[in-house]
């Protein structure tokens, strides 16, 4: 068999894979809906929930640490931290981020 050929797949494998992909898609959708609801109830930006979780678990963290945990680009983490800072939920201090959650 050349490296370009795939082994024949049984219908069971294909159906099992499709079912898993469907389940993961539904799980992701439900997670987004739940995150939107939590963020709305708390008055926080939804995208900032992962930042607040990182800070809640680790305490002060650099922007690169904040970006690394949810595996996002530093520019994305920077926008999320900026939105949280604008809303008064975090306080950027000397290129580090401290958790200061609003009551």
TrEMBL record:
Residues 88-103 have a biased composition (Basic and acidic residues). Transmembrane segments: none annotated. Residues 83-103 are annotated as: Disordered. InterPro entries: WH-like_DNA-bd_sf (IPR036388), WH_DNA-bd_sf (IPR036390). This is MarR family transcriptional regulator. The lineage of its organism: Bacteria, Bacillati, Actinomycetota, Actinomycetes, Micrococcales.
């Amino acid at each position: 068999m050349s490296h370009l050929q795939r082994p024949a797949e049984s219908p069971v494998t294909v159906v099992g894979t499709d079912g898993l992909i469907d389940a993961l898609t539904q799980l992701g959708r439900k997670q987004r809906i739940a995150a939107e609801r939590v963020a709305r109830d708390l008055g926080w930006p939804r995208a900032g929930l992962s930042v607040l979780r990182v800070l809640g678990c680790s305490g002060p963290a650099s922007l690169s640490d904040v970006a690394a945990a949810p595996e996002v680009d530093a520019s994305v983490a920077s926008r999320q931290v900026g939105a949280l800072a604008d809303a008064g939920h975090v306080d950027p201090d000397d290129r580090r981020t401290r958790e200061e959650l609003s009551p």
